[in-house]
């Protein structure tokens, strides 16, 4: 190999090594934030409904600070190289989408849209070729949301909230109907989608138990003290 | 009522996702197919080069240099066809798409680099440089179809050593083939040394280096046989060729089998205890 070629190769390699280090630092930061959020949000399973707004408010600053990370990443990534590096942060990104979607659901009872998620994470459309929120990552975040909500359906009953499982059931069924519209390939998204039916089943069982014992809100009026038994 | 309205809106949003995901999957399929076509054409080009280099030279073509030039010219023709396919791939992966599909394109690209570097070697006796490869993947106006990934460049070159081994071994039985084989031997040895520093950075290069080491050993063994035999005086050239041919047959047949047989032996021994 002549020296010009060796120089060229080394130059390319050094660029990549340097860039990878920079991205790693940001991803570590991103990861820390998403872990903090999951940690706080884990308390929804033990927090009664009246304590929920305060809990969700306490996560908000961490969620907002994710904007700093996405902005730093967009600044580091060279033009047109988004897909080259995205695997380094896709787990963090999916977790961030999950947290944002969970907060949104608990606050509004609706689905956080892709463009809302993009806005919350501060991702700008002009970054398109350097940093964006791909549909796949958004969908991964939503599947994690369903996983979490199936747990919440169970735990909210334990906390005496019999309305929540029914709301969750409707929401998750809508989402499942959405996922059924997709032609998924044999990849991780497909496998995770296939597992959704177990979450659905779990939620259905909770709804069934609650309705059967007349704990559900519609039955509540007739039986004002459902917990006494 | 309310739930069906929310269902409709979710479904319509996911409808949009489906279009997007289908588009992505279709494009990926097309690129995988292109990559396979490129691989096929590249293999054909490599076979063509081997054929020209081992065929009996047509009368009038005396020296090796003109044979090499003829092979390289034919190789270039084949490579042009492949470059046309890359032009199509280039349109498909414009802008930020390239890196999304790089892994789907990479097998064909590496095979192409193997064929290209083989042609280049026959023509110049040198290793093709990164910039030279990138230049072959450009439109006439000089705009590259996509950036050449360093790993594809190095992995493609790493496959060249295997082809050169075949070339050297079959050349040995030809007149003047011994010098050729010794040149290839030096060249492959240098390649191996050059690539070694990149193994920590390029995934899969380590494996390919091992293959290169095996190829190198085969050429070295053949060269050794020649050195030993030539040192014996009074040996006719055609007889020498027989010796070499025998070594080659043993090496190409025995090299791969040797190790599994040792492994079998060990396993048998383990079973006894």
From TrEMBL, chain A:
Name of the molecule in the record: Translin
* CDD domains in the cross-refs: Translin
Q: Which keywords does this Swiss-Prot/TrEMBL entry list? A: Cytoplasm, DNA-binding, Nucleus, RNA-binding
What InterPro entries does the record point to? Translin, Translin_C, Translin_fam, Translin_N, Translin_sf
Q: Which domain of life does this protein belong to?
A: Eukaryota
Subcellular location per UniProt equals: Cytoplasm; Nucleus
Q: Name one GO cellular component term.
A: cytoplasm
UniProtKB/TrEMBL annotation, chain B:
Chief localization class? cytoplasm
Molecular function per GO: sequence-specific DNA binding
Asked if the Swiss-Prot or TrEMBL record annotates the protein with the keyword Cytoplasm, the reply is yes
InterPro entries per UniProt: Translin_C, Translin_fam, Translin_N, Translin_sf
**Amino acid composition bias (Basic and acidic residues), ranges on this chain:** 261-273
Which Pfam family, giving just one, matches this sequence? Translin
GO CC: one term?
nucleus
Location comes to: Cytoplasm; Nucleus
- Disordered: region residues: 251-273
| Keywords assigned | Cytoplasm, Nucleus
Annotated family: Belongs to the translin family.
Q: Which protein is depicted? A: Translin
Q: Which organism is it from?
A: Steccherinum ochraceum
């Amino acid at each position: 190999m002549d020296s010009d070629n060796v120089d060229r190769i080394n130059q390319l390699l050094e660029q990549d090594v340097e860039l990878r280090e920079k991205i790693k630092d940001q991803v570590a930061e991103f990861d820390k934030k998403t872990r903090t959020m999951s940690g706080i949000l884990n308390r929804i399973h033990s927090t009664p409904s009246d304590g929920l707004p305060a809990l969700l408010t306490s996560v908000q600053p961490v969620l907002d600070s994710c904007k700093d990370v996405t902005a730093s990443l967009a600044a580091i990534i060279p033009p047109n190289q988004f897909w080259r590096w995205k695997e380094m942060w896709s787990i963090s990104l999916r977790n961030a989408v999950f947290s944002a979607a969970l907060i949104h659901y608990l606050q509004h009872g609706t689905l956080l849209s892709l463009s809302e998620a993009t806005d919350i994470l501060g991702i700008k459309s002009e970054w398109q070729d350097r940093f964006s929120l791909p549909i796949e990552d958004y969908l991964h975040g939503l599947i994690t949301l369903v996983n979490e909500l199936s747990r919440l359906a169970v735990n909210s009953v334990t906390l005496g909230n019999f309305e929540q499982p029914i709301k969750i059931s409707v929401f998750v069924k809508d989402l499942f109907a959405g996922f059924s519209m997709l032609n998924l390939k044999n990849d991780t998204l497909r496998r995770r989608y296939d597992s959704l039916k177990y979450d659905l089943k779990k939620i259905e069982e909770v709804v069934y138990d609650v309705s059967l014992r007349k704990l559900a809100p519609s039955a509540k009026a007739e039986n004002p003290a459902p917990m006494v038994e | 009522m309310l739930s069906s309205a929310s269902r409709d809106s979710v479904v319509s949003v996911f409808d949009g996702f489906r279009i997007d995901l289908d588009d992505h999957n279709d494009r990926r399929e097309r690129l995988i197919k292109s990559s396979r076509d490129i691989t096929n054409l590249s293999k054909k080009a490599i076979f063509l080069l081997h054929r020209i280099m081992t065929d009996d030279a047509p009368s009038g073509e005396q020296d090796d240099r003109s044979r090499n030039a003829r092979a390289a010219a034919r190789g270039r023709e084949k490579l042009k066809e492949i470059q046309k396919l890359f032009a199509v791939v280039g349109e498909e992966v414009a802008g930020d798409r390239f890196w999304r599909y790089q892994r789907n394109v990479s097998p064909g690209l590496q095979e192409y680099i193997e064929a290209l570097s083989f042609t280049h070697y026959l023509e110049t006796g040198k290793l093709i440089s990164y910039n030279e490869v990138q230049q072959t993947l450009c439109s006439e106006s000089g705009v590259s179809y996509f950036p050449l990934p360093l790993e594809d460049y190095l992995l493609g070159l790493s496959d060249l050593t295997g082809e050169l081994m075949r070339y050297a071994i079959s050349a040995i039985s030809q007149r003047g083939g011994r010098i050729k084989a010794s040149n290839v031997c030096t060249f492959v040895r240098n390649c191996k040394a050059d690539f070694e520093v990149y193994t920590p950075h390029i995934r899969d290069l380590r494996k390919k280096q091992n293959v290169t080491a095996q190829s190198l050993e085969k050429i070295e063994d053949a060269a050794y046989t020649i050195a030993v035999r030539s040192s014996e005086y009074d040996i006719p050239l055609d007889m020498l060729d027989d010796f070499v041919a025998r070594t080659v047959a043993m090496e190409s047949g025995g090299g791969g089998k040797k190790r599994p047989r040792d492994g079998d032996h060990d396993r048998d021994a383990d079973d006894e205890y």
